[in-house]
Every structure is written in C-alpha cells, then in structure tokens.
Amino acid sequence: MPEAMDASPGAAAGGLAGRLWRGLRLPLGDPLAVFGLMIYVLFILTAVFADQLATHDPTEILYTPDYDLAADRRPGEDGYILGTTSLGRDIWSQLVYGSRSALLIGLTAAVMVALIGTLVGLVAGYFGGWVDAVLMRLADIAFGIPFLPFVIVLSAFLEPSIWNVVLAMALVLWRDTGRVIRSQVLSLRTRAYVEAARVCGSSDLKIVFRHIAPNILPLSFLYGSIAIGWAILTEASISFLGFGDPDTISWGTMLQDAYASQALSTRAFHWFVPPGLCIILVVVAGFLVSRGYEEILFPKLKE
Amino acid sequence: MSGPRAGVPLIEAEDVAMHFRVGSALSALVGGRPALVRAVDGVSLTLMRGESVGLLGESGCGKTTMGRLLLRLLRPSAGRIRFDGEDIAALSGAGLRRFRARAQMIFQNPFEALNPRFTIAAALAEPLENAGIPRAEWAGRIERAMELVRLPDPGQFLARRPHQLSGGQLQRVVMARALLLDPDFVVADEPVSMLDVSVRAGVLNVFREVRARLGLTAIYISHDLALVRYVCERTVVMYLGRVVEDGPTEAMIEDPLHPYTRALVAAVPTPDPDQSHAPLPIGRGAPDARNPPSGCRFRDRCPLAHDRCAAEAPRPTRIGARTVYCHLHG
Amino acid sequence: MTETILDIRDLAIAYRVAQGEMRAVDGASLAVPAGTITGLVGESGCGKTTLARALTRVMPGNARLAGGQALFAGRDLMTLPEAEMNRLRWREIAFVPQSAMNSLDPVYRVGTQLREVLVGRGGMDRRRARARAEELFGMVGIEPRRLGDYPHQFSGGMRQRVAIALALALGPRLVIADEPVTALDVIVQRQILDQLLELQKGLGLSVILVTHDISVVAYVCDRVAVMYAGQVVEAGDVRTVLTRPAHPYTMGLCNAFPHLDGARGVLTPIEGAPPDLLAPPPGCRFAPRCPFAVDACRRQAPPVQAIGGTHLAACHRIAEAEALRARAARVETWAAMAETVA
C-alpha cells in the first residue's frame, strides 16, 4: 500500500505551498470575481514593468526644447500620453508609478490584516479562557478607534510615509478579521474530528494548523481582499488631505496635486480622472474578488 | 473479565464532579450569579482490566461528560481519576502522549469524526505519527486494524475521503483508528445511534468481538439498555450527574433495584407486537441539571418517593454484586 | 373491512440532482385504512420521508411527481389544485415533523403560534382560539399555563408534544408523523408514543407514522409497510409482518435488533448498503444484499403479491417464505453475504 501512504499528513505537510494554494481556493467559478482578478493582474503587471511602461521620470519637471516649462499639456500633445501637470510632470508616468505604491500598500496591508486577524482569531477561538478575553478586549478597543483620524494622528507623530497607512491598518483593522475568524474557530473547535485528533494525541499546535486553519483560510483571504481596497482608499484620502508623503508618487498625491492646482476649474480632466479611475477599479476589483470568496464560503448566497 | 491481569483496576474515578458555568459574564453582572450546571456530581467508578461497562441514562444525565472526563478531554471540577495508578490530571508532555495512545474513543457520529479534507489513509496515519511509530510500521498496523474491524480489502478505502464511505464503513474506520495504537481502554459514545438499522448489528458485533479478542477495558455509553446488554457485562445507571445503580447487566434487567432502572428496563423498545402497554413507572418531565431536586435527584419523578428522599441523598447500598443508591434499599 | 382513507397507487417522486434524475420513491403502493396507525418503516434513503412529505405536497424545489396517485377520500392529492390542497392542510391532513424545533418559531410564544393556526387557518375568533389552545395542551399532557412559554423553554419531549398539539389544532382526519420520537430518549419516546396512541384511539385518527425503528412500529402501529430503495416491499398488519415476514429484507430487519428477553445471541447485520437510486439494479432491488437471491431476482423485478388477507410482499420466492424465515434466523446465512457485497 505504498501509494496510499503518500496521502499521509506527513507527506502533505511537506507540500506546505501546495496546501496553501489549495486553501486559497481562487474564486474562478464566478465570472465577476475572475474579472476582478484580471484587474489585479493588470495592475500588478503595470507595477512590475513600470520602468518599461513609463515614458518619463514621474518626478522630473519637463521642459520643451526651448527651455519653456512643458506644463498643462493636453493628452497626446507633444507626445505626452496623458498630458502633463501644471508643474510640467508627465501624468502617464505618474499613473504608472502610482500603481507601485498602491499595490505595495494594498498588498502589505492585506497580508498584515489577514495574518494578524487570523492568528488572533485562531488563538482566541481555540484556547479560549483569559487569552480569548484579553484579545477580544483589545479588539473592542480597536473597534472604538476612528480609523481615518487615527492614521492622521499617527502620521503626525511619525514622519509622513505611505507605511503609516500600513501600520495603522495592521494596528486597527485586524479586529474584523479576528472577530469573524474567532467565531468560526469556536464552532470548528467543537467538531468531533477535532476532538478525535485530541484523543489520538495531536498537539494543540497541530490541531490548530492541520484541522482548523485550512477551514478558515478562505475567510482570511476574504478579509485580505477587502483590506486591499481599504488600504488604497485610505492612502488616497490621507494624501488628498495633505498628510501623505510628498516624495512618493501615488494616486492619492496625484489627486491632491491636481486639486491644489485647481485642475477642476481649468477642466484638466486628463489629470484627475485617470488616478480616480484607477482607485475605483482596484477597489471594485477587491470587492468582486471578496464576493467570489463569500460565495465559496457561504454557497447559499448564490440563490 | 479475561486477560493476564484481570482483577486489577485500570480506572479508578473517585468522587468526580464536573460543573459548567452557563450564561455570559454580562448576564452574571446584571442578573447575579451565573447558573451552575452539575453535569457530573460526585461519581465514583472503578473499572477492572478487561471489563466492559455500560454507562446508561437519559440525555443530560452526565454519561457523555463522564466518558470525556475519563479520557481527559475535560478536567474535573473536583475529584480524582487514576488510570493504571496514575492521576491523569497530572499528566503532561510524554506522559500525556502515552496516555493518549492507551485511551481511545469511538465517536457517536462517524460522519463528523473524520476530517472531511483528509483521506482515510491520512486520518489513520495521524495517531501513528503522534505516537512516534516508525513509518515503516504504518502500513502493517493499518492493515491489521482494518482487518480487526472487518473492513475487507482495506486498500480500496485508503485513498478515499470520508464522504465516499457509508456510515457503517466510516464507523469501522473510526474504530480501526482507535485500535491502531493497541489501547487498553476505549470509550464508545453511542456509536450506532447515527447508523442505519441494518448496519448497526455489524458495528455492534465488531465492537464485541474486538473487545473480547484484545481484552480491552471499555465503556459503552447509551440510553438503550438492550444495546448495552449486547456488549457489556456490567452496567452503571446515571441520573442527573449521579450513579443510581451499578451491577451486572443481566441481574439488573431481571430485577432492577432502583425505581429509575425499573423505568429504563420497561421503556426498552422491543420489536414484539404483543408487548405490554402499561404506563411507565416514572413521572413525566425532563430532569433539569440547573435545578436538581434536594436529596435524591430522582424523587420528583419517582413513583415511590417518600419524605426521606427529599431530606437526604441516598448512600450506596451493596446487595450482592450490585450497588444501589436508593432509600428503599438502605 | 374498514374504509380506506388514503390509497397510494404506484407513486413515484423524482429529484433533479447534478448527476441526473433520482427516483426517491419509485412505484410505491400503500392503502391506509381509516382509524388506524400505519407504520412506514425503512432505512435512511429508502424514500419514506419523501413519500410522507409528498402527501402534504410540501416538497423541495427540485422534486417532481413522476407518476402515480394518492387518493384521499377519493380525490388525488397529487393533482389537486394548490388552493384546494391548501384547504386540506391542517383541516384534513396534518404533519408532525421529526424535529419539533423546525415547526416552531423560536421568537414567538408557543401559545401565539398555536392561536395563529387556529385563527388564521381555522377562522376562529380570539376567545375560541384561546380556549381551544388550552384544550389542545390538555390533550397532549402539558399544563395550559405553559402556552406563554417560548420553544426553547421546553424539553425535547415537551416540544414534540407541542408539535402534536399543533398538528391536531384543526381536528384533521389524517396525521402524518415523520420520525416523531427519533431524537428522544427511550423513556420520553415511550411516553410520547403512549400519548399518540391515546389521542389516536380517542379521536379516531388515521395516522401514518414514518420511522426507521421496528420497535416503534411494533409498539403503536396496526399496519406496517416496509420500504426499500423507493418501493414498498412488504405490507400487512403488524403482527403478521413482524412475526411471519415474507420478504427477506423484513426478515433481516427483525433479526438486526438487540432484545432484552431471550438469550444474548449474535445479531445478524444485513451486509452491504442500499443501491444507488440513480442507477438501481435491474430486477429486485434487494437482490444484491439478499442471501436467498436466485437468477430470476437479478433479472426481473418481483410483482407485489398477496399472501393472505391484507399481507402483501414483493418477492420471487414468496412461496418458500416459511423455509427462508428459518434460514434467515441463522447468523451464517447473512454472514455469507459479507464477501459478495464487499
């Protein structure tokens, strides 16, 4: 029976990556979720190949051959794909590089939120008792913190950086993930097969990671994909309000720049519509993907 | 009662209690003290090596809690449980792992007792891995256990997942898993109640056979005396967290001493169309573990209760090989 | 002979499932005499619950009538317009579900729910409804003051009593009870069955009792129909069917139970599992598990034949029933099947 033995947990534990992948269960059955995933892929490719896609340095102030400032160019004019800002910077290149900071923030925030929330939920739900009480009171405190003001205060204490948003999200937004996963773990913990694992001598760690965690992974990914949109939106809001990092190009700083330069009154739509659109697209994509996960988790929603 | 060391106790439970607090901390703050459920309330029980004992009672009598206490799936609020002379509450690390290998459980619902994500092979490998059995021995051990529970041609099951097996097959896999590490003690918690009638007999037969063959010490939890009679020589009847009668099963059926046992014997369903339809000698209503009556816990449903039953809890009285907790006999 | 209140003829109910169409009930026939309790007994998946639910015409969306009739007082329940069917529910035909929790709304007091049926369905005024609710609780042995309680305040057995009171609210002639005592402990089970018997005798009810438990049938039923793989394989009065079964499946069921009386012999399991209803075997559906199957059984479905009086069975070897019963009582007979079915 050697072939059957390959299916033993020992063998499965070797393929951690494979198990993670199976736990991930990409929502490929739902066309809208696939559309969302495609938007993600598009933005990831843009961020990866930003150096190739951008036509200029996004922070460089551009001049005409006559040493005039190449400001306020309309799309296509003088070869600037999306035109330039009123300070003579290339909007297309800013948009392309903006995808980098957006994805950096979005993905790190998603990973932090999903990771912290999942760990908290697993520990609180499985072990219960005072550990659970302490963690859940912390979650209550996190629930009491108004998110945007918290990020602003944090930025005021630390120097302006896009990482403030990630830090703030890691400090505050694990609460939703943690709560939901804890309640899920509470019900999984009472399953007979979890008790069976205890009877046959499995350690708590083994039970948590082998028997409980795989069942809640899709939930972690659901909250992670929600966090992506949140993080990008928050970063944009912070930058727009002027608390962002002025040296980093992001869609939020682009909007702030356009707003401060009264792009709206000069009808420079080519300046503020593209970053706005990009934010909307990424956030909507996050929503579509999370919807796909929801349908995996709660199949009854389909009806 | 076979085996080389018959007559030696394997499990000694002394005055074991398990109290659960119900209701949230908030309701305790608003409404005073939280309710205390005395699921098990002072049970003493000794199991000899190789003995099989039925734990009989209605839902809520504490029989399942007692089974879980004996396996250290719960820690008692009071009292002590010794397994092979050792206090199981004190076990940890390697000692606990050794205990886990020796004391096993067969679950009520075979459809839930195996992780749906794992193949049968993976489910069977888990205890072997935990016990540190060399991998080379796994296949042989699994094959032997599957043979014991009469799963012919085990190869065909190993690669499958639980949902691809029938209830009877699953319960045999659950039993095989319990037997993999050659345990001394097995708790079976209503192992056939979720199974179809036609396969129940098969699972019961396997249980009886395996127990006798391996000289296992076993506890069979049920509310049906006919099932207990089929697999156990001795029966312990529980009511609201306490033992009411303890003794040889056959004697108990022929002449139940406690009024509650009498009702249980009369209530056993039989497929005989000419059976008696006389009303059961027991009051209506369900036992409430939150508000048990004073004195004898059974007195509010007992047709023979008198003043003394409310005043004091009955002490154990030995009558031959049996022990009964009732004022009628004391 | 008494009048027949319900005459089920060759009924077939099919479920649409991913793999095709599954006939959960496939040509079941059964006559229910008025004023009796008829047991419908079988294992899970034999179609007994589907059949019982079909009689109330409350079925899941993927189920459809695939043939046959169910004549209630001469009218076919299967083709009755929905409005007419609705008039029959509660007033003529009532249903007691397996888990009373499913028929009771946890957020309303049970009295409110009972009166809702009496007022909304029965058209009673509030005062009469209140009196009737108290009367019903008295009938099922619950103190009327408990009408003010919520479902969770009742124990499992009490809840089942409430469900019976609810079913009897508008004085139906036929009550269909689906595993009414399955989830209960032996003592409560017995008390509920006693109550059911008392009510049935007192009110002259006709009852269809769906159960997997032959003991329940033996205790309360006058007649019994044994179902296997969507078909009624044996029917008759309880004493005859349980003491002189003519179908090998019934013989197997009767030997698969532990008793309290007699010797503690060895139980005889029926090896194997019921067939996949998506692809039932040709011929007799029990043949693959039957120790007495001959070639004819595997080729041709046996017709339902009368043995004597109302005793019917669908078996090719019906003439040898006496001899087969003796063989079926032996463990070796069934054990020999272990290798065949595996």
What does this structure look like?
The complex is a heterotrimer of chains A (303), B (330) and C (342). By secondary structure, chain A is mainly alpha-helical. Chain A is built from 14 helices and no strands. Chain A has one domain (42-60, 91-302): MetI-like fold, CATH 1.10.3720. Helices cover 71% and strands 0% of the residues of chain A. In chain A, α4 (31-48) packs across α6, α6 (91-127) packs antiparallel against α7 and α12 (204-240) runs parallel beside α13 (251-260). By secondary structure, chain B is an alpha/beta fold. Chain C has an eight-stranded mixed sheet with strand order 6-7-8-3-9-10-12-11, with helices on both faces. In chain C, strands 2-1-4-5 form a four-stranded antiparallel sheet, covered by helices on one side. In chain C, α4 (110-121) crosses α5. The chains are: A mainly alpha (303), B alpha/beta (330), C alpha/beta (342). Chains in contact: A-B, B-C. Chains B and C meet through α8, α9 and α11 of B and α6, α7, α8, α9 and α10 of C.
Task: Provide a concise account of the structure shown.
The complex is a heterotrimer of chains A (303), B (330) and C (342). Chain A is mainly α.
Features of this protein?
heterotrimer, A: mainly alpha, MetI-like fold, C: about 350 residues, four-stranded antiparallel β-sheet, 12 strands
> Would you tell me the overall average pLDDT of chain A?
81
Q: Got a strand count of chain C? A: 12
| Biggest pleated-sheet summary of chain C | 8 strands, mixed
Radius of gyration of chain C: 21 Å
**Helix amount of chain C:** 25-40%
> Which overall shape of chain C is indicated by the principal axes computed on the Cα atoms?
globular
Strand order of the largest sheet of chain C: 6-7-8-3-9-10-12-11
Q: Please, how many helices of chain A?
A: 14
Task: Report the uncertain regions of chain A.
Answer: 1-14
Which strand-content bin applies to the residues of chain A? under 5%
Which two protein chains have the largest interface (Cβ within 8 Å of the partner's Cβ), and how many residues from each?
Answer: B-C, 45 and 49 residues
